[in-house]
Structure formats: structure tokens, C-alpha cells
Design a protein that fits this description.
Lysozyme; 168 residues; mainly alpha
């Protein structure tokens, strides 16, 4: 079965299960855009390499760069100086070239797993990836920042909807 057909089938099942249009629309974008299809196999292989739940790093990459070519190639950087597909800030992570997608994806996968081991849950690992480990420690959980709350919630709900699992 072609990947696109599978996603349409999953979207139909999601509608029958009561998922909202926005969940289906985002799932379609993060799984089916041309850059998603280009980097998806590498993202999934990195998940396998580091024992990350299926599609978690994939969806994180979408959240960070939306798979936009101008972000991936560094033409557009964030106001915080984050660069590339995984939006890595070179000042905090000098050991990786954030504009090399393969290197950035591998680095981000390794970093996400280290955050998971540090905090004991994927939700807290995602929060630390977004807001920094210091903020997760400071607030003893997901920081009360609207951006971080939405970041964790959106990624986990989309991955759970796509995979029919409950990652926490």
C-alpha cells in the first residue's frame, strides 16, 4: 500500500474515531510533505537507533522546522539563533553542525534520549528540548510557558493519534 493511501485511510479512521480536523490536517502535513517524505526515513532510523518511540523525533522535527527548506538550509534562523531541521542553537550545542540534516537529526535523537533518561518521561524530555532542562528542573515538570505546554501537547497528541498508542 502506498504511504499516501495509508495516511488517507488513517485520516478516515481518525475521523470515525472522533479526531478533530486539525489533528488530521497536522498529521497529513508532518507525514506527507515532500520534505517530510525526504527526511522521514532518516528520522525513523534515528528513532530506531536510539529507542525513541516511532514518529516522536519525526514529529518533533516538524514542530521545530515545519520541514521548511529555508529553515533546514539556514536561510532563516529563529530569533533565539536556532538553526536547521532540528532548530539547534549552536551556542548551547557546539558539537554539531545544525545545517547538516543527518548530523543534526542524529544529535537531536541522542540529545532527546539523554533528556528522557534524565527526566524519566517523553513529555518531560520534549519540554526540556523546547524550554531547556533547567526550566524543567526549576518547575519540577513541564514549565508553565504557553509555548512549551502547546509544544509537548501537540507533539504527543499527534504521535499518539498517528500510532494509536499512548506515549507519555
Amino acid at each position: 500500500m502506498k504511504r499516501e493511501t495509508l495516511y488517507l485511510l488513517l485520516a478516515g479512521l481518525a475521523i470515525l474515531a472522533g479526531a478533530t480536523y486539525s489533528v488530521i490536517k497536522v498529521m497529513a502535513m508532518w507525514k506527507t510533505s515532500s520534505n517530510a517524505l525526504k527526511y522521514g526515513p532518516l528520522l525513523n532510523a534515528t528513532e530506531d537507533k536510539y529507542g525513541i518511540p516511532r514518529d516522536l523525533l519525526f514529529r518533533l522535527a516538524y514542530q521545530e522546522s515545519h520541514f521548511r527548506s529555508d529553515i533546514i538550509d539556514g536561510s532563516t534562523a529563529s530569533p533565539a539563533g536556532a538553526q536547521g531541521i532540528m532548530q539547534i542553537v549552536p551556542a548551547y550545542h557546539p558539537g554539531v553542525n545544525p545545517l547538516d540534516p543527518a548530523a543534526a537529526i542524529d544529535y537531536a535523537g541522542n540529545f532527546l534520549v539523554s533528556l528522557y533518561h534524565q527526566f524519566g518521561s517523553w513529555a518531560l524530555a520534549l519540554a526540556a528540548y523546547n524550554a531547556g532542562p533547567g526550566n524543567v528542573r526549576k518547575y519540577n515538570g513541564i514549565p508553565p510557558f504557553a509555548e512549551t505546554q502547546a509544544y509537548v501537547s501537540n507533539i504527543l497528541s499527534d504521535v499518539n493519534a498517528a500510532n494509536g498508542t499512548a506515549i507519555a
